[in-house]
Amino acid sequence: MTSRSELDHRRREAQAALLGRVAGRALTRRTTGLDGLAKKLVAGRAPTVGPDPELDHDDPDWQVPGPSTRDGSDRT
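Above: the chain's sequence. Below: its structure in token form.
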């Protein structure tokens, strides 16, 4: 088991508590106040993702499939 100094232990505990609060705020739907600030912090650290060519469709009549039922029949 690794022995840590009390200062290091307190620093790690504070960091874990802070990240727990930021993560909770970043996952809410609110965009104002501390929630918005947390979202901006998380978005700034997230890597940018380019467009996925597998998701492009050439057919202009293609539509996103709707939810299916258990028996396989389509409800309209």
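The mean pLDDT is 77.
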